[in-house]
Design brief:
The protein is α/β, with parallel strands linked by helices. It contains 14 helices and 15 strands. Strands 13-12-11-7-10-9-8-14-15 form a nine-stranded mixed sheet.
């Protein structure tokens, strides 16, 4: 990036090693939190409704580049009479001091500038997954969370569900131990499957859409229905593919409680229909992790794409299907099967789980993911998926995206956080320079 030398980037990475657990703008449990909803369609709409349903917030602003469209109609009708903005910069300029927290449910490439601006003003952030579009952007967001002492949460909701509490309890009790192999998969169809593109298409601009703000820091391309609404995820310049969409829901607890951190090797074992612009139609990507303290070396193999089904585990009962999304965890003594989000693991074969039933540790569930975020803003709880936890998880997937894009085998130095055997891949950790006029967010 033009705004940060690699030496500066390394210093930022080092500065993010320790964190204050006390948010900078604590509300107090008795005070409702003034929340701005940024992104009012699709997942942004869902986040707005879920945060509002906690009963602990005052909605104070709506922000979406397509306000006034069918895309945002439900949320605009649900919260009438509060200020509305198409440009988040104008909202923060006018109302920053009135906003305690915000939800950010927008395309992957737009997470970074919005959250950096919010955090710099001491505003607590709930940001949809993946945390940001590039490895470097995530690194800077981790550092900003610490610098501005804000309470943050990434929207991988399962990290507050049964799988979180179960995995934690089973790992602490030694039920899950000695994991050397994980298979993860998401084999349903995606929006870009079947596309044949050799560039960015162009459609007539919808009336009232703020396309410049939609683009944000990302490279400029014309409006297209294959980008907005919702289709941006399949394009390298704007989305993170199936990794960004499903990875944080499938592998979050494995990454956290097995202390995986960063892989030291990423291998593209399969890429069907590689393309310079959009993600492959199917891919198999392997992540290799070295020994970590008492944890043995571990390999995660990820499968995506219709029909790209992983090997069936020998322990799975005959007749039982492998779902379209899930994981198989191979431990020293036991094999575990899980699906996605907050769904708990089960030991396979099922007869083994029944045999162990009474000896398996019990676990209790806490607050839901959105309530946990609001209580974090109030100073009552620590968020379960803060940026210094969810950031490295998202960075792992960023490395996977580079392998999907370029193919081959990438070697990653876990200390310097650089790709050492491919200069093009190493440059993609940072991505292209931001568009003119959007450089400031890399300096906050």
């Amino acid at each position: 990036m033009k705004s940060l030398s690699r030496r500066q980037f390394t210093k930022v990475a080092a500065a993010s090693a320790a964190y204050s657990l006390i948010p900078g703008r604590v509300m107090g449990a008795s005070k409702k939190v003034n929340v701005a909803f940024i992104g009012c369609g699709h997942m942004g709409a869902g986040d707005a409704k879920s945060v509002f349903s906690t009963g602990e917030v005052n909605p104070v602003a709506l922000c979406d580049v397509a306000l006034g469209s069918k895309h945002t109609a439900e949320i605009e009708a649900k919260f009438p009479g509060i200020p509305k903005f198409k440009d988040f910069r104008q909202m923060f300029d006018k109302m920053g001091k009135e906003i305690d927290a915000c939800t950010i449910g927008v395309p992957d490439h737009a997470h970074f500038p919005i959250s950096m601006r919010a955090m710099s003003e001491g505003i607590h952030c709930y940001v949809e997954k993946p945390l940001a579009h590039t490895f470097q952007e995530i690194e800077l967001m981790i550092a900003a969370e610490k610098k501005y002492k804000v309470s943050c949460q990434m929207g991988n909701q399962g990290h507050s569900g049964a799988n979180y509490h179960q995995f934690k309890a089973w790992k602490e009790a030694g039920i899950i131990r000695g994991v050397t192999k994980i298979t993860a998969y998401m084999t349903s169809g995606r929006r870009w499957h079947g596309w044949d593109v050799d560039g960015y298409p162009e459609d007539p601009m919808p009336e009232g859409l703020d396309w410049d703000t939609w683009l944000g820091t990302a490279p400029e391309h014309p409006f297209s229905k294959k980008l907005h609404p919702g289709n941006w995820r399949g394009w390298f310049d704007y989305g993170n593919g199936a990794f960004g969409d499903w990875g944080p829901h499938i592998l979050d607890t494995c990454h956290r409680f097995l202390d995986l951190g960063m892989p030291n090797k990423i291998t593209a074992e399969k890429r069907d229909g590689p393309n310079d612009y959009i993600f492959p139609q199917a891919s198999t990507i392997r992540f290799d992790f070295p020994e970590r303290g008492d944890e043995p070396a571990c390999a995660i193999t990820w499968y995506d794409g219709k029909g790209n089904t992983p090997e069936r585990p020998a322990e799975l009962e005959e007749g039982r299907k492998i779902e379209n999304a899930g994981k198989i965890i191979y431990g020293k003594d036991l094999t575990f099967k899980g699906t996605s989000h907050g769904s708990p693991l089960r030991i396979i074969p099922e007869a083994k789980m029944k045999e162990m039933g009474k000896d398996l540790p019990k676990f209790e569930s806490g607050s839901g993911h959105h309530l946990n975020f609001i209580r974090g803003a109030q100073g009552e709880e620590q968020t379960r998926s803060p940026f210094h936890i969810s950031g490295p998880l998202s960075q792992m997937f960023s490395l996977g995206v580079i392998a999907q894009r370029l193919g081959g085998e990438l070697e990653f130095d876990r200390k310097t956080k650089r790709i050492t055997n491919n200069k093009v891949a190493d440059a993609l950790l940072e991505g292209p320079p931001p568009r003119k006029g959007w450089e400031e967010y890399y300096k906050l």
